Amino acid sequence: MSLFLIVALPFFGALLPGLMNSAGRQACAGLTFTVSLAAFIGLLTNLPAVLAGELVTARVDWIPSLGLNFTLMLDGLGFFFALLILGIGLLIIAYARSYLSRDDNMGEFFTYLLLFQGAMVGIVLSDNILLLLVFWELTSLSSFLLIGYWKHLPEGRQGARMALTVTGMGGLSMIGGMLILGQIAGSYDLSVILQNRDLIQADPLYLPALLLILLGCFTKSAQFPFHFWLPHAMAAPTPVSAYLHSATMVKAGIFLMARMWPVLSGTPEWFVIVTTAGLITMVIGAVIALFKHDLKALLAFSTVSHLGLITMLLGTGTAFGAMAAMFHILNHATFKAALFMSAGIVDHEAHTRDIRRLGGLRHLMPITFVIATVAALSMAGIPFLNGFLSKEMMLEEATHTVLFGSHWLVPALATFGSLFSAAYCFRLIGHTFLGPVRDDYPTKPHDPGAGMWFPPAILVVLVVLIGVAPFLAEPFVKLVTASVLGEAAEVPKAYFKIWHGLVPALFMSVAAVVGGLLLIAVFKPALRLWDAAPRPEAKTIFEALIAAVVALAERLIHGLHNGAFSRYGAIMAATVIGAGYYAWATGTVGAPTREMQDMTPMAVAGWLMLAAATLGMVFLHRNRLMSLILIGIAGLMVSVGFVFFSAPDLAMTQITVEVVTIILLLLALNFLPNRTPVESTVMRRTRDATIALAGGLAAMGMAWHFLMRDAVTGPISQFHLANSYKGGGGTNVVNVILVDFRGFDTYGEIIVLGIAALLIYALTETLLSGPVRARLLNRKPDQPRAGDMHPTMMVVLTRVIMPVVLMVGFYIFLRGHNEPGGGFIAGLVVSIAVVMQYMASGFSWASARLRYPYHGVIGAGVLIAGLTGIGSWFVAKPFLTSDFTYVRIPPFQEFELATAALFDLGVFLAVVGAVMLSLESFSRLARRAHVKDPEHPMDIDPSRDEPQAAAVKEGV
After folding, report:
1. Is residue 74 within 8 Å of residue 3, measured between CB atoms?
2. 297 phi/psi in degrees, rounded to 5
3. With b meaning 16 or more CB within 10 Å and e meaning fewer, what string describes 540-568?
4. In 3D, which of 379, 342, 360 has the Cα closest to residue 242?
C-alpha cells in the first residue's frame, strides 16, 4: 500500500465516527477499528521491503520553492513506530468500546483518536522536516482534544491546557532548530540531512540547532524539567492515557532523538545534555511514582521514569545503547499499555483508583490480577519477562558510561532508579491486588467482559513470549537499530538472551529488586518521611510562572493597548522614525545622480493649495465639516498631481473615490456633533506635533533621496511595459496589472471591500434592533431643515444625467483594457449616478425601486471574478491567467475579446454593491420617526399639487 494512503487513512477515517454516532456504539467503534486495521494491513504490505533493507519512499512536490515537499519514507525505525502506533491503536479502540460509558460521545472520541493517530503516523513516516513539523504540531492539538475530552472535569481541562502549553512551546523551539539544520545541510529532506553528519557537527550553528531540537524532544517526551505535564494528562479517559503513554505522544520525542541520532549524537554536547536529562528524569520519576496513591498517577510517573531510561540510553552515543533503547521501547509499549488498561479496568469496576481504598482484588478480579501482575513484574525487571532483558541491557550500558569523569555515577543512579522502579511495581501489585478482600469498596468489583480484558491480555502474551524467547525479537530489533545508526556505527553483535553470566549488570539488577522489596517493607515510615519533606511542586511552579507571564502581559497591554489611537500612532511612528534614523546614520548615502526639474507656476500653485489644505486640517480639524472640505481639497489636488505626472487612470480613480467617500462621510457626520471637543493636554499635543514633524521630515528626506538618485535595480515597470500587450492583451498597463499581473491582489481587495460593506450593514442592523434605535428615530436636528429636501431641479437633473452617466460608465468599462478606465473606475462612476438618485428623491423612494439586493451584487461580483480565475485551470494555467483573441462580426470591425473583461465585470459589480450597501446602511440610520417617508420623487410637483389644491378649494 502507498505510504500516502497509510498516512491519509486515519485523517479521512476521522470524518466517519461522527457520522456513525447515531448508528450506535458498535457501529462507531467498528468503523474506527476498520480504518485503523486498513492502515495497519497497508503498513504490513511493506514489511518484505523493510526486512530486505530497502527504503520505501513516496514523494509529491508541495511547495518546492520553500523546500516543503510531501515526502515520506519507510525504513526499519519508521516501520517499528508505525507498527506500535497502529497495532496498539487497534487494541485501544477495542478497549475503548467497552470502557466508555453511554453518556460519552463516542463519535467525538474516535474522531479525536483517529486525528491523533494520523498525526503520529505522519511524524514517523515523514522524510521532510518541515512536513514532520506540521504533523508534530497536529499531535499537540489533537492530544489537547483527547486529554480534555471529559470537558466537565476541571482537571481534564487543566491537564489539556498544560500539555498544549508545554509541548507547544517545545514545538516552536524545535521549528527553529530544524530550520537551522536544514540550512546547514542544504536540504529539508531527512534522507539528505542524515547523510551529512560531519558537515552538521562541524558547523558553528550545530549547538544552537541541537539545543532547540532537544528542547522540543524533551517537552514532548516529558524529560526533566518538563516532566510535570504528563502526569496531569492522566485526567483523560484511560484509553487515551494508555495510548499516549505506551505508543504515541510521549514516544514522539524519543522517536525524533532516534531519527536524528546519526547526525546529532557522538558529540560531548549531546552526551552530557541527553544522558544527564535522562538520568535525572529516570530517578525523579521513579521516586515520585512510589508515593503516588492514584493508580494512573503511579503509572504516569513510571512512564516519565522509563522515558528517562530510554533517553539516557540514546544519550550515551553508543551503538549498544541505541539498540537497548529500541528494545526497551518495544517492551515498554507492551507492558505499559497493559498496565494502563488494567488500571482502567479497576477504576471502571471498583469506581476508584486510590490504592488506599483497594487491596484483595486478586480474589474478585483474577483475570485482571494476572494481567496486571505479569505486566508489573516485567516493568520491575523480573526474569523471564521482556522488561528484564532490556533493563539488563540498560544496566550493562550504564557500567561502561563515564559521566563528568566519574565511572560510578551513571551505574549508581541507574541502579537507584531501578530500585524505586521495582518498588512501585511491587506496591502496585501488593497494595492493589494482594491482601484480604475489603468490605468498603465504592462498588463491589469484578472482572469485566472480554472486551476490556482481552486487549491487555494480548500484550501480556507478548511480554511473556519475548521474555522467554528473546531470540524471536532479536532480528527485528537489530533491523530497527540499523536504521537508527545509519552509517554512523555498526549494529552490535550482542545476542539477546536471558543469562549472560555473573556480570555487573546482574548484580545491579538483583540489588534493585531486593532493594525494592525492602523499600516496600518499610513503605509506611518512608511515606511519612516523604510527606514531611519539603520539596518543590512542579505544577505550582508552572502555574506561578504562567500567572507571572499573564500579569506582565496585562501590564504591557494596559500600558500600550489602552484604546487610544493617538498612543498607537505615536508609538508606531516613533518606532519607524527611530529605525529609519538608525539605518540612515549607520548606512551610506551616495551623491545625487539626477538634476532637479524646473518648477512651473502650475506645479507651485498646486503644491501651495495642497500645503494650505494640509495646514488647514491641522488648525481647523475640530470643525468637522471644514475638515471634510479640506480633505476634499487635498484629494482633488492629489488627482491634479496624477494628471500632471501623466497618470490618468490614477487621477480618475482618485476623483471618483473622493466623491464617493465625501458623500459617505457627510452621511456619517449627520450623526456627530459639529465640533470635536478638546480632550488632549498641551503636553500630549506637543508630543504629537514633534513626532509628526519628525515623521514628515523623514518622509520628505526619503522621497528626496529616491527622486534625486537612480534606482539600484531596474524598476519592475519595465517588465509590465514589455509584457502588457504580449501577455495580457492590453495596452493600458495599469489595467493589465490590476486584472492580470496582480489579479490575485485585486481579487483579495474586492473581497475585503465587500466584507467592509457587509460589516457596515451588520452594525447598522445591530443598532436598529437595539436600544439605540429609539434615540435615532426620535432625534431632532440642531438646526432647521429645508422644507424642500428633494428639490425639483435636482430630481430632474439627476434623471437626465442618469442614462448619460451609465453610458459613460459602460464606455469607461469597455475601454479600460487599452485606454484609461476599467471596472473599478466604472463601478465608482455608476455608483455616483445611483447615489445621486438617493440624494435627489430620498432613501425610501429610491430603495422601493431597487430590484436586486446589494448583498447579491457584491456576491455576484466576487463569484464572477473567482470563476474567471478558476477557468484558467481547465487549460492547465495558474489561477487568474488571462487569455485573449480577436474576432470579427460583420459589419463591425475586428475587436478583442479578453477573459480579463469578465474579471473586470466582477470588480465592477463588487464596487457598485459595496458602495451602495454602505450608503444604504447609513441612509437607514438617518430616518426619523416624526418625518414621513416621501411617496413621490420630489417634495413639490406643480402637476401634482395644484390640481389637488384646486379640488380642495372647490370642495370648500
Report:
1. yes
2. -65, -40
3. eebeeeeeeeeeeeeeeeeeeeeeeeeee
4. 342
| Omega before 492 within 30 of 0, i.e. cis | no
What confidence tens digit (pLDDT) does each residue in 549-587 have?
Answer: 989 988 888 877 777 777 788 888 888 888 888 888 887
Terminal alpha carbon distance of the chain: 98
Contact in structure between 169 and 212 (CB atoms under 8 Å): no
DSSP string, 647-686: -HHHHHHHHHHHHHHHHHHHHHHTTS-SB----S-HHHHH
pLDDT digits (tens, 9 = 90+) for 697-742: 888 888 888 888 887 777 788 888 888 888 778 888 888 888 888 8
φ and ψ of 887, to 5 deg = -130, 165
**Coil, helix or strand at residue 911:** helix
In this prediction the pTM is 0.72
704/713 Cα distance (integer angstroms): 18
Per-residue burial over 47-56, b = 16 or more CB atoms within 10 Å of its CB, e = otherwise = eeebeeeeeb
| C-alpha cell belonging to residue 805 | 452617466
Q: Quick check: 381 and 388 in contact, CB under 8 A?
A: yes
Contact 137, 490 (CB under 8 A): no
Q: What is the pLDDT of residue 929?
A: 43
Q: How far is CA 708 from the centre of its chain?
A: 45
DSSP H or E stretch at residue 884: strand 884-887
Helices (H) and strands (E) in the chain, counts: 42, 4
Residue 838: HSE in the Cβ half-sphere, 13 Å Cα cutoff: 24
